[in-house]
Amino acid sequence: MRIGIDVMGGDFAPRAIVLGAILALNELSTKDELVLIGDKNQILPILAEQNVSPDRFNIVHTTDTIEMCEHPTKAFNKKPNSSIAVGFNMLKKKQIDAFSSAGNTGAMLVGSIYSVNPIPGIIRPCTMVTLPKENNKSGILLDVGTNPDARPDVLYQFGLLGSIYAENVLNIKNPKVGLLNIGTEEEKGNIVTQATFKLMKNTKDFNFIGNVESRDLFKDIVDVIVCDGFTGNILLKQIEAFYRIMKKRNINDDYLEKFNYENIGGTPILGINSTVLIGHGISSPIAIKNMILLSGNISHAKLLGKIKKALIKYTQNNP
Amino acid sequence: MRIGIDVMGGDFAPRAIVLGAILALNELSTKDELVLIGDKNQILPILAEQNVSPDRFNIVHTTDTIEMCEHPTKAFNKKPNSSIAVGFNMLKKKQIDAFSSAGNTGAMLVGSIYSVNPIPGIIRPCTMVTLPKENNKSGILLDVGTNPDARPDVLYQFGLLGSIYAENVLNIKNPKVGLLNIGTEEEKGNIVTQATFKLMKNTKDFNFIGNVESRDLFKDIVDVIVCDGFTGNILLKQIEAFYRIMKKRNINDDYLEKFNYENIGGTPILGINSTVLIGHGISSPIAIKNMILLSGNISHAKLLGKIKKALIKYTQNNP
Known about the structure:
Two copies of one chain form a homodimer. Chain A is an alpha/beta fold.
């Protein structure tokens, strides 16, 4: 696999990104190629300082950068030589198999939707995170911010996408899909979750187990938790708040340490024609390393083909 | 003040409720009267066992109970001699000033809306909780479950209600009201929060400070956090999950201990013609004590008159 990383994106770019790429190199298979996309004149001195040969990477030189504060669509179109635009261009031409960035999130979404494009049949792509369960297994939560308003048919597809991800990337057989709600009974919730429950309850597309409450988010009763991007984003940022408070109060705990964003390893965008991950703006070298490794895992899982296959079945079931 | 408590409501009723009432008695002013509403034949033996004279309470004997699993509206109408129905009847006749129960939440809402009634001008009553801030102050979050779908004008009123509560019960001058959202910029969020921001941004009814993210829920940048009941309920139950995990992992911390539901002291219903609080079904004696004390504080704050006064101004401003 050829794994691309945007060296120019993130609050501590390019240094934190190059250091993270060096860390990732040591854990990647020798069959994988790490493609650094960014300003060669900034990358080479950092590699030299770290005594790492540039030959261990494929460096693709870019001359421009989309800044964090720039308008995503405008910047993406105005800066074809930016690291993000070049990354998506390479994805499109299949010169790389995966692309990650801790840079401008909006620009990453623009690239995903308008350059790489959604998989035909997908109404709306979404973003997801892996959640650590209390029993050391993992679950996933989606959407976490891309679709603040999500219709029932969109949420239904999130269930399908999440199920395929959990089965192929997390290796969970017949993953349990739950709908995030404020009660477990079918009639509970808001208008959207009530209608979504009706769509999901007899599905054969995935293993729907019913409504799940946020108090059970970390238990092993569910593998894939489906919600709109508004709710998912609110949940994710509350996890961040708890982690921050815990650290501030000098609480150290093996399990709770898993909530450190560094260990979560970036946010995959599901439902598009490639493997794309978005990292936290403040990404450290460890966070970048984990994002690169996760993007490699997703590419190796050949998720795309499996989603396309499932979508054919889904379209037949839901004509 | 005459403070009523439903002795029959809750998973550990009547015992936990009577024990909680005894604890509350020691902290209430001698001018306050505690009214125990429930089966006298069950209450008296517990008081005797605890060596507490029944004369210290006003005991109102009831012969029926609305069970946790019953349909709220049907049970409320079918059981006029149940402790919840009797409590609301006493509230309506102003024989008590406040009423709390850890019993059937739906029946408590039915009583609040159809027996006590919303304050004229209030579109939808809501439920709220007090959140402990990291600097030892308190903030509030509303709605936490009553309105899973809330229109912008309803959310606007939650801002008004929360502001009056924070000012009068928590004694915060000119409380900072924030709209819970997934970004701080005006254009962020879902359709409802975007429209709500527009309604709130130039308001003179309360001190609107803009959007607030869930990562800042416990910071002192905001006193009143407004959201729909779906999002609020999800947040509240995630707090519950974190607290449970913390206890399970033997983490003890003074600040995080404040997230123990026992210390939160029940959920006031705002926007109705009386003081009504709902407790957690699993309420312990300490939780009941804190709910009784909170209901006393709210009654003493004369919230109702202040909300009515603010609503007159609000109706003039929003004809």
